[in-house]
Every structure is written in C-alpha cells, then in structure tokens.
Amino acid sequence: MSNEDLELRRREFLKIAGGSAFMSLVAGAGFTALPGTAWSAHHLKALSEDEGKTLLAFARTLFPHDFLADSYYGNVVNAVDEKAAADAALRQQITEGVARVERLSKKNFGDQSFHQLGEKARTRVVKTVEGTPFFSTMYGETLGGIYGHPDVWKVLGFEGSSVEHGGYLERGFDDISWLPKE
After folding, report:
1. Cβ contact 139:62 at 8 Å
2. How big is the CA angle at 64 (ends 144 and 42), to the nearest 5 degrees?
3. What is the model's pTM?
4. Is residue 84 a contact partner of residue 91, using CB atoms and an 8 Å limit?
5. What are phi and psi of 121, to 5 degrees?
6. Rounded alpha-carbon distances, angstroms, from residue 126 to 101, 103, 121, 168, 179
7. Residues 122, 56: contact at Cβ < 8 Å?
C-alpha cells in the first residue's frame, strides 16, 4: 500500500468522522427541528390556504433555518393573517403581494407555485419584490415572529432579556476567556 493510498483513506476517514462528530455536536446543542413540524393553512381567517402556503415559503426564504419547524414560520403567517383580517388595506397589500410572487414564480419557473420552488428559485423571486411594501411587511413580521420567539432563542443559545436578572455583566458576558484580566 502506497503513502498516497494511506493518505486518501485517512482523509476519507477524517471527512466521515468529522461529519459525524459535527452532526453529534449540532444535535447535542439542540439544533434539531423544534417540535411541532406541521403547520396547516386551513384555519386562516383573511387569507386563502394557497396564500398561506406562499407566505410560509416566503418567510422561510427570508430567514432560512433548516432546524426550525414549519410551525414557527406558520406563526408568522398566522400573525399576518390576524392583522390582515383587522385591516383591509393590509389584506389588500398581502393579497396583491402574494399574487405578484405567484405570477413571477409561474412566469420564470415553469408554471410552479412559489412554495413548490427550490430555495435558489424562491430567493430570486424574493429579490425581485424586495423594496415593495409587501416585502417590508413580511420582512418585519418574519424578523419579529422568528427571532422574538422564546423557543427559538433556546435553540440559538440566546437566554433572553437579562434586565430582570441584573443585566448581562454578571450573567455570562464576562465569560470570554480571551479577554485580558485586569
């Protein structure tokens, strides 16, 4: 057996072992899909089921996290639906925005609905509507809906507000080992 063969096998081993170790670390750190993976659009008040599916895919495209279940993105859709049910102008903005996203999807990607597209294709469509009021609304709602959720904080390692616990200074902020000691 030559050294080249040995090196190749060592690299293959390290690649496999490293990948397994990384996945164990990720799973152990909580980066698995959060419970409640299913989300259903049939309970929406102002928006149709198809509009809900489009909004879910839009939210996931804006802030893609494979380890987050659809139910967390569904919470964003539910919040948008609640607001649209109470505000006719917002409902029209959302309905027109979804219709535009769907037209772009079908025109550019072989008559496929937005939620059926792959991530790269969805990203292209989202970039096309960036700067519209619809995009701004969905961006704000998704940002707050995902990163404002305490269960997501746990997965991301954020402990939440520290004001009620005396601030960050005595709660891990100074745990950084590379800072010089005074």
Report:
1. yes
2. 70
3. 0.72
4. yes
5. -65, -40
6. 8, 12, 9, 37, 41
7. no
